[in-house]
Write a structure and sequence with these properties.
Shape: globular
Strand content: 25-35%
Largest sheet: 5 strands, mixed
Helix content: 10-25%
Number of helices: 6
Number of strands: 19
Length: about 325
């Protein structure tokens, strides 16, 4: 997500990984309680592209990993190829993306790939990258999802943890918040509110039992406000942003339509939330509800939520 989150407001239940399916085929929408085995990729996949903020071309290779390995980034361009675990403890900074750190090694803009991995049910993966930032690709998670689906998802001889939340939990800053409410099924709901007429007030609510991640969430692209572009560039940000990898909103119109969804910005913010919450490792069966939040609020919420969760298995 490029635009500061609503900065201009108008005024691995069972260690949940989301079911892989086509939105038109409801028979493929598996009950999450049936997803008891950890999963990894059947084969390695590779993507090359340019980082949103760094503007640096990088290559990412995603490999199968052993049970209980989790999702881990390896900076193969650095001495000794240090690994950075995709966990909430590794969060470093969250300025217009989520960055992880282990010692002196960092990796930035991880949220789209992590959302894709969670969205297609990958618990364990080794992610090799030869630069400091994940490529933005088309600005959505769809290229990652497509590559992982082509590689295949395979179950492993290890059970996922069961994660439960007993009582509602909220994290709030001003009128922005993220909440988790115990619920009969996993659901994510996200609201945004911008002064720009082309965006305005939008909401999207998504349950993986009803719509697949691949069809309903993954295609939603990142967006930026035209009036903020020059300022962001003076800060050394969005060096790799183009009209091919980000939607640009200019007041009451989009500079580079067409939109993939009428509420594509809200869906993209929900995508970011899924990626940031994946840093918990496994998410509980709750209704996640967010409004005017940000990567900072997402990750602070996740860090505060974790002690409230009960893990078993």
């Amino acid at each position: 997500m490029i635009s500061p989150p609503n900065s201009q407001p108008h005024a691995a239940a069972s260690g949940v990984s989301l079911p892989l399916s086509d939105e038109s085929n409801r028979s493929d929408r598996l009950d999450l309680s049936e997803q008891s085995a950890q999963c990894t990729l059947a084969h390695s996949v590779e993507q090359t592209g340019v980082g949103l903020h760094s503007g640096v071309s990088v290559t990412v290779r995603i490999h199968p990993a052993d049970p209980h390995a989790g999702r881990c980034f390896r900076r193969v361009d650095l001495p000794n190829a240090p690994c950075i675990s995709a966990t909430i403890d590794a969060v470093d900074q969250t300025t217009l993306s989520t960055e992880l750190r282990a010692g002196e090694a960092t990796v930035r803009t991880v949220e789209h790939l992590l959302a894709a991995l969670l969205g297609v049910g990958i618990d364990n993966a080794l992610i090799e990258i030869d630069g400091p930032e994940l490529p933005l690709l088309d600005g959505s998670a769809l290229p990652w999802v497509d590559a992982i689906q082509r590689a295949g998802v395979v179950p492993q001889a290890a059970a996922r943890s069961t994660v439960t939340l007993q009582a509602p939990f909220w994290y709030q800053k001003g009128d922005a918040f993220v909440a988790a409410l115990p619920a009969p099924e996993l659901r994510f709901s996200y609201g945004i509110d911008f002064a720009e007429q082309a965006i305005g007030n939008q909401w999207h609510s998504w349950s993986p039992q009803q719509d697949s991640f691949a069809a309903a969430i993954a295609p939603a692209r990142t967006f930026v406000l035209a009036r903020q572009i020059d300022h962001l560039r003076t800060l050394g940000l969005i060096k790799g942003g183009t009209l091919e990898n980000a939607l640009v909103c200019d007041g009451d119109q989009w500079v580079n339509p067409p939109m993939r969804f009428a509420n594509e910005p809200a869906r993209h913010k929900l995508l970011d939330l899924v990626g940031d919450l994946s840093l918990l490792g496994a998410v509980p069966q709750v209704h996640f509800l967010a409004y005017k939040a940000s990567h900072h609020l997402h990750t602070q919420f996740a860090a505060q939520l974790r002690p409230q969760l009960t893990y078993s298995g």
